[in-house]
Each structure stands twice: as structure tokens, then as C-alpha cells.
Amino acid sequence: MFGAAKILVPMDFSACSRLALDYAVFFARHFGSQIDVLHVWEPPRYVIPEVTVQLPGEIRQSLADFARVEAGKEMDQLLAGVVVPSNVQLRGRLESGDPTETVVELAAKEAFDLVVMGTHGRTGLSHVFLGSVAEKVVRRAACPVLTIRQPGAGAG
Known about the structure:
By secondary structure, the chain is α/β, with parallel strands linked by helices. Helix content is about 45%, strand content about 25%. The strands form two sheets. The protein has a five-stranded parallel β-sheet, sandwiched between helices. The chain has a two-stranded antiparallel ribbon with strand order 3-4.
């Protein structure tokens, strides 16, 4: 029997990831689940074509602090607008690191039963060069991963 007591929703605040949260709430309503909404950002770097340079420590820390504060505000605003029944627990989480690694490691370490995440439906060169966090999570996660695509994304 399938159950999903703990659901992880990676969140980049796009329309697609917000739609994934709607799906997670739908499932959680039936299972009385805990939903963790996770936003992961990569440590700031200055990018020059062909080279990625780490910023000096003070600047990097200031940017990281700013990113955390802004992400926290956006997360609070997002969660305030989500209506969940009394049998569902909803909480936001902020992490810094590689999005794929963070999602996969957290899902395993904290024994999530399901990951529900958006996928932007990139194809062609943009997919080859940018890859897909969702695709990497699907391949590496220890638990089931449900990917949600924005209606009309990737069509054509």
C-alpha cells in the first residue's frame, strides 16, 4: 500500500514549482502528510565565460545573507497563501548548496516518502547545456519522485 507521510517539494518559486506544491497538498490531504517546501540556492559566484571565480569571503557572505533573507521572505509569502487541512503539516526550509545534491541527500537522510517537483520541460540545446535538476533527482533519489510540468511547457 502506498503512503506518503513525508513529502518534499523543492521550490524555486516558479509557476511550475508552485503547481507542484498544489499537487503535494492534494496528496497530503489524503494521507495526512507533512509537507516540507525546500528552497535551495547555490552559493554566489561571479561567472566569466569559460571561468567561474569564487568571490572574496566578505562579499560572498553578504550575498549569501541577502539571498537567505530574500528567499525567507518569498517562502513566508508563499506558505501564507497555501491552504491546508488540519491533518496536513506544512513547513518551509532554506538551504544553500547544489540543488540536486541537497534534494537527494535530504530526501534520503530524513526518509521522505515522496518528492513532488516541477520540471520546466526544456528540450534541445537548453536541456543539454543546463541539464535538469528534476531529471537528476529522478535518477538519484531513493524515494519516488513525481514531476509536474507546467501545462503547455515543452510543447512544439
